[in-house]
Design a protein that fits this description.
two-stranded antiparallel ribbon; alpha+beta; 82 residues
């Protein structure tokens, strides 16, 4: 929760306009390729509450086979056929 709360407090106190950040690198030179990292933060939502952030070293996530994100394209296709 501390990480989430801190991010929320930071965003509410900064009061900067979107897109006003100064970059050290030109936008077109940033690159949007896959960049492997040694970990990521995972925060789960259980029983109506956010759990504590957890640093996860493995590069994989568990995703339910019925996740709507996986089936959105199929649903659109079926809708167009109807």
């Amino acid at each position: 929760r501390g990480l989430v709360t801190s991010a929320l407090q930071m965003s509410s106190t900064a009061k900067k306009a979107p897109g006003s950040a100064k970059l050290d690198t030109a936008w077109e030179d940033l690159g949007f390729e896959f960049r492997p990292t040694n970990s990521h933060i995972q925060i789960q939502h259980k029983n109506g509450e956010w759990q504590e952030p957890e640093l996860v070293k493995e590069p994989y996530i568990n995703l339910h086979i019925g996740a709507t994100a996986l089936h959105y394209g199929q649903a659109c296709f079926e809708g167009l056929k109807a």
